[in-house]
Amino acid sequence: MTINKFWGVLIASLFLFSACERQKDEVTETGNSKFLSFVGSDSLSTEFIYSESDPVVLNLDENQIDAKIKLSDLMTDYRLLSLKNWDGGVVGDIDKILLSDSLVFILDQYTYNSLQIFDLFTGEQVGQFIPTGEGPGEMKSISEFDLDEANRRILIYDNSLAKVLSFSFEGDFLSEKRLPLRAHSFKIFPGNQLFFSSFNNGNGHLGKTAESDIFLLDSNFIIRSTFKYPKIDQMLSNYVPRDVIRENGGVVTYFPRFSNELLKVDVANNTISPIFQVNLEAKGLSEKDFGDIGPEFISERKEDKKFYGFGLHFVSPTWMGMKFNRFGGPELHVYYNKTTGDIISGTGLEFDFEDLIFYSFPLACVDQECVSFIRLGGKQYKDYEEIFKKEEGSGRDFTKVKKFLESVEDFEQPVLLIFKLKD
Asked: Which of 23, 42, 222, 265 could be a cystine partner for 252, CB 3.0 to 4.6 Å?
């Protein structure tokens, strides 16, 4: 295989991974049988006000969609981190990542259903949560989690038992509370408010309120505000994303599935408004497609190969980024620099930054530092040595990445890519 063909295969494999494209947790109980005390809650909530505002609008042509992204235009520094599990432990897949000042929290929901904690600088494992049961302080499944850094708390959501459990960063159980609904993605706000995204989750006991996509609960877990995305019916298809709600620097964002726009959530003013919109012309979903989204969504997208939004995005002090998925081809990454107005987009990658040979869309950002994960593809170091030999005449110095690969003990396990965005 020539070196160009190898990079093509590598790029395709990196782009095709998707940690969030999963079906929702299986729920055997009906909504009413599980939440009898919450039936008849229509009068409890008000609606978020949807404000059109003045979003940044990008109209991408075919050349911008099919382009290659130069990593040197996006980042200023990087490091690779190998995860060093406790004896017998493993990270099979990565569905969500969150960062604190010195720790990285990794949810592997579907392979080993665990939440593992690692040192952000050494990669050493320092904590782990796994399902243990249905009693107090126990969970049947780990469906979602969030961090309350101000109080050094980890909040774990169990969709099967419809409850949120609170633990200290050190792993001590603090409290738990039953929810009046089921959901699939959530974020904690100041004042112990919880912001949930939920659809097709068996919430019929909520009456008309169950038609909402977003639920804001107060500190007593009472539903106070709801929101239904006006442009796309989120209730039709069972194709459910994971990480549609994000926060960075106090900015909370919501990326509705199948959509091409990113929404900003202002809880204090009870408003939700678009801040970023990407139009993909014939290669994206049309208004007609939005109206017809239903159970056949997957088969239709396999046929027309159109891009669709599926929740994955980020907002940093300088950048906004959105990832668009599709069946039958590489995904599309779109990055917009809020300071310079520069647009970086494409379905391919140009590895022109230092000796970096891996990249994937970030799963979390804190200020300008982002983290994603890389699959080494089951290769061994000797496989990469052959690649480096073929690149000897390119003038690139692979010392940094070689040193990292020499230190990797398990090439089957994902590694983290931590990089700093350009200002």
From this structure: 265
The pLDDT of residue 10: 37
Put simply, whether the predicted model's pTM sits higher than 0.70 gets the answer yes
**What is the helix (H) or strand (E) element at residue 297, kind and residue range?**
helix 297-304
For residue range 179-206, list pLDDT tens digits in order.
999 888 899 998 899 999 987 777 888 8
Helix (H) / strand (E) containing 266: strand 261-266
Q: How far, in Å, CA of 89 to CA of 85, rounded?
A: 5
Give the C-alpha separation, 390 to 397, whole Å: 13
The whole-number average pLDDT for the span 82-99 is 89
CA distances from 356 to 68, 220, 350, 351, 405 (A): 15, 48, 10, 6, 12
- What secondary structure does DSSP assign to 10-30, as a single string? HHHHHHH--SS-EEPPP--S-
Q: Residue 309 sits in which domain range?
A: 3-421
Mean residue pLDDT across the chain: 86
Helix (H) or strand (E) holding 390, with range, is: helix 381-390
Distance CA 90, CA 167 (A): 22
Instruction: Give the DSSP H or E segment for 382.
Output: helix 381-390
Pairing of strands 56-59, 271-279: parallel
Distances (CA, A) of 270 to 251, 325, 384: 14, 30, 52
Can you name the residues that pair with 187 across neighbouring β-strands? 195
Number of domains the chain is built from: 1
Please check whether residue 88 is in contact with residue 136, taking contact to mean a CB–CB distance below 8 angstroms: no
305 Cβ contact list (under 8 Å, min separation 6): 326, 327, 328, 329
**Residue in the block written with tokens 């647009």:** 343
The CATH number of whichever domain residue 172 belongs to comes to 2.120.10.30
Q: What string of DSSP letters covers 67-104?
A: -EEEGGGTEEEEEEEE-BPPTT------SEEEE-SSEE
**What radius of gyration, in Å, describes the C-alpha atoms of the chain?**
22
CA angle 212, 58, 325 (to 5 degrees): 60
CA quadruple 24, 30, 34, 37: dihedral sign: positive
Q: How far, in Å, CA of 262 to CA of 314, rounded? A: 10
Residue 217, beta-bridge partner list: 194, 223
